[in-house]
C-alpha cells in the first residue's frame, strides 16, 4: 500500500500526518515548541526545535500506523512563511530564526523601498516592503549583526530548513519563496534586480521548484533519525496557507477560504496575476503550477484568543470560551476589540498599531470581552474580504479552516459578516493534507493538484448567513473601521516614546 506523509511546521507546533492513497488518515502526531519574544515586537524560534519536533512526530506516526517506511511514496512539507534561517557553510544555524510575526524591521522596509523603488518593488515582488517578509529580516541582520551575516552561506525558510535536515538539499518552492520579497512573482524565479539592489548574494538562496516537484530524497542521516526510507522522495511542498488551500480544494478560480490559526487569512485562487496597487493584500505564486493566489492577513487572529485565555481565563477550554461568548448579544454590548497585538498587515500595513478594547465599561463581563475578541478578529477578516471584492475577486461561498474554523460560533460570525455561506472540509488536516496531496502528485499517484482535490476531497454542509445578524453587524463594523484612522497617529506617538 502506497502512503503519503504530510508535515506542517506551525508557529506553535509541528504536526505530521500519514495518509493512504485515498487521503484517509492512518496516523497523526504533533509536538509543541516555544516562541521567544526578547523585545516588544520581536518574535524568534530555534530551528533545532522544529527538527526535533519533526523527528518525534515522524517516528510516532510510523509506530502508530505500523506502515513500513518503504511504503511511503513521498513526503510533502508545509510551514509558517517568511521566517529567516541563516546557516554557515557547514550547515550550522547561526542565530535564532526571526519568524513571520516579528515587527522589528520598519527601517529596513523603508531602505528596501528606497533602493528598489516603491512601484518597481510591487511590479516584481507583487507586494510592498513589509516587516513580516524575509528580505527586511536579512537586511536587519546585515545592519545589526554583521558578524553573523558575514558567516552566512545559506538562507532558508522554516519548512525548507526541515527539507535540508531531511535530504541535505538546499531547495525551496514558489509559494513560500513568494513571501521572501526576493522572488519575481510573475516570472516565478529569483529577481536578479532586487537581489542586486539589496546587495544580497544570489548564492545564499536555495534552488526554486514548483510545489509538486521532487526536490530530493531522504538522506542516510535523516533515515537513521526518523525511520524514513532513503528511497522516499521529498517534494517542494508549500507555505502554510498555500498548502491549506490545496487541502481544502481551493485550487481553481472562484474558490476561497478563511483560516483562523495564530494569524488569520482570507485566501482566493486566481489563474492570473492580480495585484492590489496599494499593497494591502499579498499576491503570491500558489501551489498549483502556473497559478497564483491573493491573500489578506490578520496578524493576531487565534493569537488574540490564545493571549486572552492565557492571561484571564485559563480555566476555560476553547469550546467553553465560544459557548460563553455565544450567550452575549451581537456587538458584545457595545464593546469592540482591535486585534493588533503584533501590528497589522491587511489592510493597514502598520507595524506600530496595537490591540485595543473600545467602549469598555463597568457593566462588561468576561463573556463580553471574549465575544468582543471573536468579533474583532472577524471584523478584521471582513476588511480582507472587502479588499478582494474591490479587486474583482468574488467570494460567493467561503471555506473555513484552522483552529477557529472548527467553532460553529465563529463560523456563524464569518457567514454573517461576509454575507455568504461558510462551510468546512470533511478533513480537518489542512496544510498537512495539502502537503500530502502535493507529495502524491510528485510521486505520480495523482495526475494533478486539481484532479486530486476534485476526486478525493469532501465537504460538510454550509452555514448560511442569518439576515438579522448580518444587518446588526453592519453598524458595529462601521464603528470598527473608523477606529484605526482615529488612532493611527497615537500608535506612532506611543511607539516613539
Please characterize this protein's 3D structure:
With 497 residues, this protein is of the alpha/beta class. It contains 18 helices and 23 strands. Strands 1, 2, 3, 5, 13, 14 and 15 form a seven-stranded mixed sheet that branches. Strands 18-19-17-16-22-23 form a six-stranded mixed sheet. Helix 2 packs across helix 4.
Q: Termini separation (Å)?
A: 62 Å
**Cα-atom Rg, whole angstroms?**
22 Å
* Average of pLDDT: 95
By DSSP, the count of extended strands is 23
Strand content: 15-25%
Helix content percent band: 40-55%
Topology:
Blueprint lengths: L2 E7 L3 E8 L4 E8 L11 E2 L1 H19 L6 E8 L5 E3 L9 E2 L7 H11 L1 H8 L8 H11 L1 H6 L2 E3 L1 H10 L3 E3 H4 L5 E2 L4 E2 L1 H7 L8 E3 L4 E4 L2 H7 L6 E3 L2 E2 H9 L7 E5 L3 E7 L11 E4 L6 E7 L3 H11 L5 H9 L9 E3 L17 E3 L7 H25 L7 E4 H4 L2 H11 L3 E2 L7 H12 L6 H8 L10 H30 L1
Name the descriptors.
globular; 497 residues; alpha/beta; 23 strands; six-stranded mixed β-sheet; 18 helices
Quick overview of this protein structure:
The protein is an alpha/beta fold.
Amino acid at each position: 500500500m502506497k502512503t503519503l506523509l504530510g508535515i506542517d511546521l506551525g508557529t506553535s507546533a509541528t504536526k505530521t500526518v500519514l495518509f493512504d492513497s485515498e487521503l484517509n488518515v492512518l496516523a497523526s502526531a504533533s509536538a509543541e515548541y516555544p516562541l521567544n519574544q526578547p523585545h516588544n515586537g520581536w518574535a524568534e524560534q530555534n530551528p533545532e526545535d522544529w527538527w526535533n519536533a519533526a523527528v518525534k512526530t515522524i517516528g510516532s506516526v510510523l509506530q502508530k500506523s505500523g506502515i513500513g517506511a518503504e511504503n511511503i511514496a513521498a513526503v510533502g512539507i508545509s510551514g509558517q512563511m517568511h521566517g529567516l534561517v541563516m546557516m554557515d557553510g557547514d550547515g550550522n544555524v547561526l542565530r535564532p530564526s526571526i519568524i513571520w510575526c516579528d515587527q522589528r524591521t520598519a527601517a529596513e522596509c523603508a531602505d528596501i523601498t528606497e533602493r528598489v523603488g516603491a512601484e518597481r518593488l510591487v511590479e516584481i515582488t507583487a507586494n510592498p516592503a513589509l516587516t513580516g517578509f524575509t528580505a527586511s529580516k536579512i537586511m536587519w541582520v546585515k545592519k545589526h549583526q554583521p558578524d553573523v551575516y558575514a558567516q552566512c552561506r545559506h538562507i532558508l525558510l522554516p519548512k525548507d530548513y526541515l527539507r535540508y535536515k531531511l535530504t541535505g538539499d538546499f531547495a525551496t518552492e514558489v509559494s513560500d519563496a513568494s513571501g521572501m520579497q526576493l522572488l519575481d512573482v510573475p516570472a516565478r524565479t529569483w529577481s536578479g534586480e532586487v537581489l542586486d539592489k539589496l546587495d544580497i548574494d544570489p548564492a545564499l538562496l536555495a534552488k526554486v521548484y514548483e510545489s509538486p516537484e521532487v526536490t530530493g530524497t531522504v538522506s542516510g542521516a535523516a533515515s537513521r533519525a526518523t525511520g524514513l526510507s532513503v528511497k522516499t522522495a521529498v517534494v517542494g511542498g508549500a507555505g502554510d496557507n498555500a498548502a491549506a488551500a490545496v487541502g481544502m480544494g481551493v485550487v481553481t478560480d472562484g474558490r476561497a477560504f478563511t483560516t483562523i490559526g495564530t494569524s488569520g487569512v482570507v485566501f482566493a485562487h486566481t489563474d492570473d496575476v492580480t495585484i492590489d496597487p496599494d499593497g494591502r493584500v499579498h499576491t503570491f505564486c500558489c501551489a498549483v503550477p502556473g497559478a497564483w493566489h491573493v491573500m489578506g492577513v490578520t496578524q493576531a487572529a487565534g493569537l488574540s484568543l490564545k493571549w486572552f485565555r492565557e492571561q484571564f481565563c485559563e480555566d476555560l477550554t476553547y469550546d467553553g470560551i465560544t459557548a460563553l461568548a455565544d450567550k452575549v448579544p451581537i456587538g458584545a454590548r457595545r464593546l469592540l476589540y482591535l486585534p493588533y497585538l503584533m501590528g497589522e498587515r491587511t489592510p493597514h500595513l502598520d507595524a506600530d498599531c496595537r490591540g485595543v478594547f473600545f467602549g469598555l465599561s463597568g457593566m462588561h463581563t468576561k463573556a463580553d470581552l471574549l465575544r468582543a475578541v471573536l468579533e474583532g478578529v472577524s471584523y478584521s477578516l471582513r476588511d480582507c474580504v472587502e479588499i478582494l471584492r474591490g479587486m474583482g475577486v468574488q467570494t460567493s461561498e467561503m471555506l473555513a479552516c484552522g483552529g477557529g474554523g472548527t467553532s460553529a460560533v465563529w463560523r456563524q460570525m464569518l457567514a454573517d459578516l461576509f454575507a455568504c455561506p461558510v462551510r468546512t472540509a470533511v478533513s480537518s488536516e489542512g496544510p498537512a493534507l495539502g502537503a500530502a496531496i502535493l507529495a502524491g502528485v510528485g510521486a505520480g499517484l495523482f495526475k494533478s493538484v486539481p484532479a486530486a482535490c476534485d476526486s478525493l476531497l469532501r465537504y460538510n454542509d454550509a452555514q448560511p448567513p442569518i439576515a438579522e445578524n448580518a444587518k446588526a453587524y453592519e453598524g458595529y463594523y462601521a464603528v470598527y473601521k473608523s477606529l484605526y484612522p482615529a488612532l493611527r497617529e497615537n500608535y506612532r506617538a506611543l511607539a516613539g516614546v
